[in-house]
Amino acid sequence: MIPSTVVNISCKAFEDFRVLKEVVLVEGVRSIGDDAFWGCRSLESTNIPSTLVEIGWNAFDHSSPLNEKLNGIYSKAMCDTSSITTQPITTSPAHTDQF
To answer: What domains appear along the chain, each with residue ranges and CATH number?
Structure first.
């Protein structure tokens, strides 16, 4: 669990931490930096607190098996969506273009 005093997860904070299986982000976390969890190959689950407003570039890239469950969140995927509160992901995305 990320301590309640943490507001920002720094760039590359947990990069290549291959034994990390779960990330619990507490309310109050506002941002996840670029490559923060890059290469966390054992990462199976995480949550998104209501206070999170920014997820950096490649934040969860190469984090299999998490990436097997979610094919991608792309640039501006949630731009201007202030009315969204919660949206469960129940099926595989139909569109998985790569940049």
So the answer is: 1-75 (3.80.10.10)
Q: Is the N-terminal amide bond of 93 cis, ω within 30° of 0?
A: no
Which of 57, 58, 59 shows the shortest CA–CA distance to 25?
59
Residue 25 has a CB neighbour count (10 Å cut-off) of 17
Contacts of 56 (CB under 8 A, 6+ apart): 11, 31, 32, 33, 34, 35, 36
CA distance 53 to 94: 25
Taking the C-alpha atoms of residue 19 and residue 96, their distance in angstroms, rounded to an integer, is 27
Query: In terms of C-beta density within 10 A (0-12 exposed, 13-18 middle, 19 or more buried), how is residue 29 classed?
Result: buried
* Digit-coded pLDDT (tens) for 1-48: 788 899 999 999 999 999 999 899 999 999 999 999 998 888 888 888
Which residues are registered as beta bridge partners of 46?
23
What's the pTM value of the predicted model, to 2 decimals? 0.68
